[in-house]
Each structure stands twice: as C-alpha cells, then as structure tokens.
C-alpha cells in the first residue's frame, strides 16, 4: 500500500473544508493522482461497460484502469468473466484490441493458449513436470448489475455491492439491458483531473447556460434550485416540476417501474444515487426534437413517455435510461490532468439501424453535451493551475451532490489509510 501518512496529502485531507471545492493539488499533483489510483481505482467497484459489449461466446473487451489491463470475455456457457490481461509465461499483454472475438486467448509472444475460462490449455516446450493447472489467467472480480458491468481489482472487494444491487435491480430490470446492443460508442479525452469530470457531472447549476440541447427535455430543477432566488416565472416552473414528479412517481410505480429517489452517495463505500425524473412537455427522450430515438422500445416498456431514470455510482459513472434507449458513461483516469470519458448508446438488440433508429439522431444530444462539458472541465483544470486559485463555496441548493462526491472521496481516502 502507498504510504501517505507522512505526505502533504494527509494534511490536505484533514484540512478539507466542508462545503468548498478541493485544494489545487487534488487536481494537479502526480503524487495525489497515484494515491487516487491506488486507493480509489484499485479498491472500489469501477463501472467499465455493459454485457452487450461482449454479446456472444468468444467476444472480448479490454479495459485499462491505470497500469492494470483487464480482459472481459463471454465464455462458452454465456457467462461474462474477467481476467488480468497478462500472460502467465513472461507477462506479455495477451489481448491487444479494445474489442475482438477469439476462439481461445492466445499470447502472441510464445503462443501460450488459454480457454475462455482462463485455464491454460497449451504451453509448448515447458518440460514433463510443468503443471498447466498452476498457470491459468488471474481472475478479476466482476459483477453484472442487470447488464451493467463493474470490476474490482482488490483481493477483497467492497461487500456492499450486494446492498446497492438489491435496491437498484428493480429500477434497472424493466430496461432489460442484456437484450440491448451498443448502437454507438465514443471516447473523449477530457483535459482535466478525473475528479473535475465527476464534479461537473454531479450538478446542473451550469446546465442552463451551457447545454442548450440537453435542457430542452431535461428539467434543471431535478438537480436542485434556490427557491428564494426565483422570479415569478421560475417559481411557477419549480412548482410545475414538483407536481410532475409526485404525479409521475405514483403512476410509474403503480405500473411496476420503481422511480423514487434512492441516495447513498457518501454514506456507503459503494455510493450511488438513482431517480426516475419526468421530461418536459411532450418529451419522450434525450433527443434534439425530444421524441423517441428508437421505434423499438426497450424491455417491458410499451409507452414512450416514461421519463428518464438517472443512476450514478461512485467513483466513476452516470447513466440515463429511457423507454427507447439508454446512455452509459464511465470515467477512467489517464494522468493527473487528463481523463477518458467513455459513452455508449444502447437500443433494443432487434432494432434495425436506418429503420428503427438513426444513429446521428440517437447520439446528437449527448455528443454535444459531452463536448460542452469537456470544455468546462478544461476551464477548471486551467484555473486550478493558477496561483490565484483557492477552494470556492458550493451552492447548498444546486451543488449539494458535488459536495457528497467530495465527501465520499475524502472519506474513502482517509478511511482506507486509517488517517
């Protein structure tokens, strides 16, 4: 374990001021970045993809978390399993492509060959006393939450994943993600520390002035507002939103779609938040015209107007699930000042491109929103480098969820190291 007890990180964690942003070294320091990778990304459940990334036996996907490479494989029994992407011979990287299809996992260096269950099947010239059963691939903890895939690189993963799963499975099950396909995916390298990307996501204070595409169907009020600052029109809008939430939650839950807010962002190791929120007017989905992007609905849905289920997990994901499609987001740190944002758009597996959906329409809102957010994250990263930067106060009405992310982060960093 990285010893941080005598480093500046210890004092930075101890003097963190509640209700304020973190000090600049949390966003700039390579040493703190290394501590983040060891403490957060090597020890917690990390969202990395969806079961439709590997839909058929032999399908494989590689995920790199810092210096650790993992290969996720669909085996011959249709189970999804994960292994360290390292040959047990001399440590060569085993699978080189992000996504591929294999019969077996074959090392390009000396052709050591592993089955989809990770067992070593072939290793030439190793002598008669060589025991192949002792040289299988090293497994990685993998859990599927109704089709959402989470990895944990620790020997002992946090046990409270089961608690989250018990609550969230009924929320996610109606969307039947296992019977979807990835219609489109894209990666963005954001010019900022991973915490800035997450903090930006955890509030919509910035939405009205920066996300014209997203805020057509989305109520910014769903992520907080200050009642005393509203004019008459704003007050009426907030009241209308509150009524819609109450009415829709009741109707949706009677129809078998759990909707009410579940929030454990900073009081669980595996922190999460979820709520099904209404969309404005006649909106059906996150599209430019607010209408459904896919004619073939997901899972159990028969009505396009079912709002949008928002699901966040600590430390690295957020998701939007609608009746017609879903969008998943994962953040993977690259270095102290750059992060990979990976976005996937899912539709029913039988939906036909060009007939049931148009990819450009499907992705337009979140492609624009991701680009806008990346710019904003870059602004914050640049500002953190300035000697004038100092932690600023969060809005108690619109940035309370940012505060809970920072509470979670500081709490995990201090608890893991016994500080």
Automatic annotation (TrEMBL):
Protein name: Naphthalene 1,2-dioxygenase subunit alpha
Annotated ranges, domain Rieske: 45-151
Source organism of the structure: Hartmannibacter diazotrophicus
Known EC number: 1.14.12.12
Listed cofactors: Fe cation
InterPro entries associated with the record: Rieske_2Fe-2S, Rieske_2Fe-2S_sf, Ring_hydroxy_dOase_asu_C_dom, Rng_hydr_dOase-A
GO molecular function list: 2 iron, 2 sulfur cluster binding; iron ion binding; naphthalene 1,2-dioxygenase activity
Keywords (A to Z) from UniProt: 2Fe-2S, Dioxygenase, Iron, Iron-sulfur, Metal-binding, Oxidoreductase
Stored SUPFAM superfamilies: Bet v1-like (SSF55961), ISP domain (SSF50022)
Gene: nagAc
Enzyme class: oxidoreductase
